[in-house]
């Protein structure tokens, strides 16, 4: 074991593993790769910004401190960190990869695995919460905050363990024949384990939402209203986007496990599949937040304030009267004119996620 960890700072190990698993080593930045990297970084910046707006909205308004919104905040935090990790991963890829030590390589890939895993576990937690709410199961008692924090903490702990297993020793250093082609320092058995866990999570989410669908369809007419139709539409979008984004990545990892070294050229394009999976972090706020009218209004509030502040500055420069600043009142007027009961029943009914 000591000899294994002594290799973590050996700068030649990454080159050795990439030379074994790759047919050619791309050490130069081609124009197409530069364009792809730029696009991915812009995409990840959008992920960071929109999830940061969701976190601000949930944190600043006590009306959103219920179970559903706290889980949404956890999802936004994991997606935000996934965007940051993927930016770092992109910047340290290409010609920089072969200059990394194994411990740096494990940190680069492990951070992406941890944050993307946390995002997936957050999706599962939200599915559980929706199932609890729709099925009217009494899960949260007086200690509901403790239970929610334990669930959120468990999702992050599992993600840390799952993403940290390779740096703790489950890797293929010293065993080139056991290495993954997509992730040349990861053992194929570890890759299979990750795919299996994610597949089980996907199956669990599908089962939960199918049961939600059955409960809603069997409800009486006073329950099966327009809210029901919106919920069914949201469930369809959630399942469709999750499967579309993650299935290609799962498939390429399964193919990586099954293929002998250098026998499947498509594995050399795996980074495109992982970039596509990251779209899930971009779309999660759209699916879960934009379907809630209250949260959407709160998320857009900072953008409206920035726009009004910019209009005010432009108005002062142009010498126009101060009435250009009047739109600032629209937000507070809307707040005063919108009667928002804070009872759990109203919040549950107003959130169609």
UniProtKB/TrEMBL annotation:
Disulfide bonds join 172-179, 259-264. Keywords: Cell membrane, Disulfide bond, G-protein coupled receptor, Glycoprotein, Membrane, Receptor, Transducer, Transmembrane, Transmembrane helix. Residues 333-353 are annotated as: Disordered. Residues 50-288 form the G-protein coupled receptors family 1 profile domain. Its main location: membrane. GO terms for biological process: actin cytoskeleton organization; excitatory postsynaptic potential; filopodium assembly; negative regulation of excitatory postsynaptic potential; positive regulation of establishment of endothelial barrier; regulation of postsynapse assembly. One of its GO terms (cellular component) is postsynapse. PROSITE patterns: G_PROTEIN_RECEP_F1_1, G_PROTEIN_RECEP_F1_2. The keyword Disulfide bond applies. GO terms for molecular function: G protein-coupled peptide receptor activity; G protein-coupled receptor binding; integrin binding; sphingosine-1-phosphate receptor activity. It is found in: Cell membrane. Belongs to the G-protein coupled receptor 1 family. This is Sphingosine-1-phosphate receptor 2. The gene is S1PR2.
